[in-house]
Amino acid sequence: MTIVASGLCRLRSGMTARSTIVTLTIVARFAVAAFAATIIIGLAGCSPHPAEITEAGSYAAANSNDCLPAVTLVDQHGHDVPLVSLKGRPVLVDFIYTTCPGPCPLMTTRMAAVAKLLGPKLGKQVTFVSISIDPEHDRPAELEKYARARGADEAGWLFLTGTPAQIDRVLALYHLERTRYPDGTVNHAVASFLLGPDGSQVRQYQPLEVKASAVVTDIDRVLGRS
Length: 226
What we know:
This protein is of the alpha+beta class.
């Protein structure tokens, strides 16, 4: 089954006022009967089992890849971060870009709500990772400014960028891809993923729908198994 995820992103300041629809197609070999016509996230990966839905916007993992590979990205403070070094604890991952006027700030706000509920666990027991899908523009300074503006520059929350090839390699592990259009916009996947200590996906979310408390429950469940 092919599920099409569409997001609306307006052009950056200084470009034309035209808006553009960006579409990301993710192939999934499972069916979820409860999907409504308004759903805006495609579930990634392959699984022989139907997706388990326990909370709105929360879905069973459908990808067995190691999503924390030996790829070194750079955080908002200019420090190298080997993704493999994040193993050993739960990691909540999403994909954003700093000039996105649509879903990204909302996703970051929702993720900040999860961080608030986690309290001191963030940084000590859990890591958050927001990876830019616009590495051509998003360097550490832009990521730090974005994080600070949204109250997300917290210990344990990494905003990462790298070379376009590195970002594309990481996206491929999630069965995602990005497309840069001539007008400078990029496609946008409205999705987040909870990884276990081994780097494999535990849950996947539609972050604009899932409750922060549901994500925290999933994180606590992973911590209990660690």
